[in-house]
């Protein structure tokens, strides 16, 4: 019996009956030889962790665009916090931590540069529409590995696609990530907003602080405990009615005071305009796209509009600015200082024709 098979057997002994057992996965689109050490969900987690899309999350906006400071969240640190919260709940409920981890690490792979402002920019300009949760699935099914995708299991892709508020993942592990995404961003965005001077703890609604706590640590502890208590032994992941209502109220407060705050979002209009200009440029000049995107259009038959969104959505904040400058900002013309110096040191060259040369010799 392989190590993987031993692990799969152990799951049946220690997991809740409601867990997603690795051996019972609905599988991959393309059949593969199983690993002798890792379960399918462990392999999915590792593939996501080693993907280019995952690494690019470190330079993508969470809330604050290109913040001046080392301690503000990025899309990557948000993803890691979602993973940590999700694993805590999964362990407490005896569910599949590996599946939870894979879904959490992959849930935002399709996010655009500049966060939800970038998502809105592409959705407005592209006639096919754009949503980051669908793009995250597209990344793992197609865009990674030059059009081959990561070939993840159905359960991981289902959890990624349905992590949004309106979604409902088929597995309890996916439902955990759906809750933890909101728990994480509401609380770490409060922390970042306080760091930026946009909020103070006293600005948080009194009712929210009374129910959930008056610090980020207390709120996280309260929310996690509530999910665990109310979901234990259940076939769905749920919160108490009071706690869910309090979290929704706090989320609405954050939209009003942070996510739409003119100070925090002062540069968003520029970011939206920039990404839409990039979209229009590549729609008019698809031959300027990198080769792997040309391949998607010419060999895979993907729509030009969708492929242009693929390219732009995959950019980091800084790279999108660099590309925009290269395409639209004129560069100054002139000799470099070295060239100019060398030019002044050369003796002037006088060019004469053959007749003039013979005439000079006679003088």
In short, what is this structure?
The chain has helices spanning 3-14, 40-49, 52-56, 75-92, 97-106, 115-125, 132-147, 154-161, 172-195, 206-212, 216-231, 241-259, 268-284, 291-298, 304-313, 317-328, 337-345, 354-362.
Structural notes for this entry:
Mean pLDDT is 91; it is low at 343-363. The protein is built from 18 helices and no strands. The chain has a single domain (3-266), classed as Hypothetical protein af1432 (Orthogonal Bundle), CATH 1.10.3210.10. The N and C termini lie far apart (104 Å). By secondary structure, it is mainly alpha-helical. It has helices at residues 3-14, 40-49, 52-56, 75-92, 97-106, 115-125, 132-147, 154-161, 172-195, 206-212, 216-231, 241-259, 268-284, 291-298, 304-313, 317-328, 337-345, 354-362.
Structural key phrases:
363 residues; mainly alpha; Hypothetical protein af1432; 61% helix
Secondary-structure element order, as H and E? HHHHHHHHHHHHHHHHHH
Question: How would a textbook summarize the main sheet?
Answer: none
Q: What is the average per-residue confidence, as pLDDT, rounded to a whole number?
A: 91
**CATH-scheme architecture:** Orthogonal Bundle
Number of domains: 1
Structural class: mainly alpha
**Could you tell me the strand content as a percent range?**
under 5%
Note the overall shape: flat
The CATH class is identified as: Mainly Alpha
Using only C-alpha atoms, the radius of gyration works out to: 27 Å
Number of strands: 0
What name does CATH use for the topology?
Hypothetical protein af1432
């Amino acid at each position: 019996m392989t190590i993987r098979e031993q692990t799969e057997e152990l799951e049946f002994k220690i997991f809740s009956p409601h867990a997603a057992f690795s051996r019972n996965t609905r599988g991959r689109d393309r059949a593969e030889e199983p690993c002798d050490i890792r379960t399918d969900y462990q392999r999915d987690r590792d593939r996501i962790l080693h993907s280019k899309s995952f690494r690019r999350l470190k330079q993508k906006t969470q809330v604050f665009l290109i913040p001046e400071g080392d301690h503000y969240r990025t899309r990557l640190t948000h993803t890691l916090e979602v993973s940590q919260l999700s694993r805590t709940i999964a362990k407490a409920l005896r569910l599949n931590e590996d599946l939870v981890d894979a879904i959490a690490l992959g849930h935002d792979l399709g996010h655009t540069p500049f966060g939800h402002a970038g998502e809105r920019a592409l959705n407005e300009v592209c006639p096919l529409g754009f949503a980051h949760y669908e793009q995250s699935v597209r990344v793992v099914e197609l865009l990674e590995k030059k059009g081959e995708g990561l070939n993840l299991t159905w359960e991981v892709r289902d959890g990624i696609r349905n992590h949004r508020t309106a979604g409902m993942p088929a597995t309890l592990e996916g439902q955990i990530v759906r809750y933890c995404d909101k728990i994480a961003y509401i609380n770490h965005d409060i922390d970042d907003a306080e760091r930026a001077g946009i909020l103070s703890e006293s600005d948080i609604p009194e009712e929210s602080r009374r129910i959930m706590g008056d610090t980020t640590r207390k709120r996280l502890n309260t929310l996690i405990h509530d999910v665990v208590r109310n979901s234990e032994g259940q076939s769905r992941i749920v919160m108490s009615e009071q706690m869910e209502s309090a979290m929704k109220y706090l989320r609405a407060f954050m939209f009003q005071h942070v996510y739409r705050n003119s100070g925090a979002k002062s540069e968003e209009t520029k970011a939206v305009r920039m990404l839409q200009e990039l979209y229009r440029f590549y729609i008019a000049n698809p031959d300027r796209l990198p080769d792997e995107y040309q391949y998607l259009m010419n060999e895979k038959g993907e729509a030009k509009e969708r492929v242009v969104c693929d390219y732009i959505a995959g950019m980091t904040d800084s790279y999108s600015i660099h590309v925009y400058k290269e395409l639209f900002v004129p560069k100054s013309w002139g000799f470099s200082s070295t060239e100019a110096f060398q030019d002044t040191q050369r003796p002037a060259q006088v060019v004469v024709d053959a007749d003039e040369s013979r005439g000079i010799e006679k003088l």
